[in-house]
Specification:
The chain is built from 13 helices and 15 strands. Strand 2 and strand 3 form a beta hairpin. It is of the alpha/beta class. The model has no long low-confidence stretch (mean pLDDT 97). The strands form three sheets. Strands 4-10-9-8-7-5-6 form a seven-stranded mixed sheet, with helices on both faces. Strands 1-2-3-13 form a four-stranded mixed sheet. 38% of the residues lie in helices and 15% in strands. It starts with a helix and ends with a helix.
């Protein structure tokens, strides 16, 4: 096994054993025996420790982590300022229930989230432990405030696996299989995926560049509200400003702006799921900021506390006016997680959000060069360090290269890169926001080698 100093100095992967190594195999065997088989593992990586951009398995193999725990470890692994904030708070107290008592950390982080989330209006914050909880909270706010019970969501969306969040999720059928009818009344419509427009239109002809807005947004008002969901019964439209599990899909700004306009006309609320796209990930604090999009309610989690479980539902104050006991959480807003979140936000504001924009632009430019070289790449898209690379079998038909994407993941792992897929055949890049130019260069070198071999 490598030493801590070697992990600290590593800038590139170091693979010493066949993968997985013998110690990793032992852990994987125990996992298969005792852990729920519902977890999805694309390849047999076992985490032993991590530092910065690099992670190590129990056999001493060192990998370049381009996942960051699926966009969670925003400041990298074991950032010293995050570790110190956790240690300092742990020395004081580990937990007190926010539903029952007061403590200064809770309003401090709430005030900060009010400041950095889109919208200049008064807001209030409810804390939970996960993205799914933040979504559940957002839906409950919308139901309570409007006294309506119908929702509109989007194909390709992922909002969580609790039954309420799962009702709005429309990413993969297997995520719903076996769980009966959806718990909530949700109508789904196509998302604005211009590379794979479900209406076979182009941005130049669909209205995306006109004041009326794109067809995929107008269909909500022109079709859904007229035929399926009475506007007076629709509580909210729930949308990811940049779609995550659906393929890291970036919509035209007019898509979100048109949704906002439609919602305003009919007294419908707009919920932004910024669980994956928030906290500096896209080179802005929230992806909504790229589009001039201001939701009524926002859900945030993942990168908020650099790896500790924490989420928040941020809503207009006039909407989150429910009475004591209406909604609460025993662990939501844990003081140690809050300490990590406050330290995370300081790092994001001081340097890391800007680095996400800078390194994201560098990666996107390099990946688009690879797209010109390799016909297997159909599309490269993203903002900041939320980047999707879609693999296809044919440039004319754009047939998704599903098996090839899965093979690409495996080949990356064998070469010491940790990536995972999204959508039908896309590779996602969601590295820590501390990534540097040499990490990007090495990533593109390995991508180039794999694509050359696969061709």
């Amino acid at each position: 096994m490598s030493s801590s100093s070697e992990l600290k100095s590593a800038r590139r992967p170091i693979i010493r054993t066949p993968l997985p190594g013998p110690r990793s195999e032992e852990i994987i065997a125990q996992d298969r025996q005792f852990v729920s088989p519902s977890y999805t593992r694309s390849y047999p990586f076992v985490m032993q420790r991590g530092l910065g951009m690099m992670v190590e398995d129990p056999d001493g193999n060192i990998f370049l982590d381009l996942m960051a725990g699926v966009a969670v470890c925003a400041t990298g692994h074991a950032h010293p300022e995050i570790v110190e904030a956790i240690r300092e708070q742990a020395d004081k107290f580990l937990h007190v229930c926010a539903a029952d008592f007061y403590y200064p950390q809770l309003p401090e982080l709430a005030r900060k989230l009010v400041e950095i989330t889109p919208g200049s209006f008064e807001k209030r914050v409810h804390f939970g432990n996960s993205g799914a909880e933040a979504i559940e909270g957002a839906i409950k706010v919308a139901f309570h405030a409007t006294r309506r019970q119908k929702l509109i969501g989007f194909h390709g969306s992922f909002h969580g696996r609790t039954l309420g969040a799962l009702s709005v999720t429309a990413s993969k059928a297997k995520q719903r299989a076996g769980f009966g009818r959806q718990a909530l009344d949700v109508t789904h419509v196509p998302y604005a995926n211009c590379y794979r427009c479900p209406y076979n239109l182009k941005p130049e002809t669909c209205g995306a560049f006109e004041s009326k807005g794109p067809h995929c947004a107008r269909v909500i008002e022109e079709v859904i509200l007229r035929t399926t969901v009475p506007a007076e019964e629709c509580a909210a439209i729930l949308v990811e400003p940049i779609q995550g599990e659906g393929g890291y899909v970036v919509p035209p700004a007019s898509f979100l702006q048109t949704i906002r306009e439609i919602a305003n006309r009919h007294g419908i609320l707009v919920i932004a799921d910024e669980v994956q796209s928030g906290m500096g990930r896209t080179g802005r604090m929230y992806a909504s900021d790229h589009f001039g999009f201001v939701p009524d309610i926002l859900a945030t989690a993942k990168g908020i506390a650099s790896g500790l479980p924490l989420s928040a539902t941020v809503a207009r104050a006039d909407l989150m006016d429910w009475t004591p006991g209406a909604h609460a959480s025993t662990f939501g807003g844990n003081p140690v997680a809050i300490a990590a979140a406050l330290a995370t936000i300081r790092l994001l504001e001081s340097e890391l959000t800007a680095n996400a924009e800078r390194m994201g632009n560098y990666l996107l430019a390099g990946l688009r060069e690879l797209q010109r070289k390799h016909s297997q790449i159909g599309d490269v898209r993203g903002r900041g360090l939320m980047i999707g690379v879609e693999l296809i079998r044919d440039q004319a038909t754009r047939e998704p290269a599903v098996a090839e994407r899965d093979r690409f993941e495996q080949e990356c792992f064998r070469r010491g890169l940790l990536v995972i897929g999204c959508g039908a055949s896309s590779i996602r890049l969601s590295p820590a926001l501390i990534i540097e130019k040499d990490h990007c260069d090495y990533t593109m070198q390995i991508f180039d080698e794999i694509l050359t071999a696969m061709s």
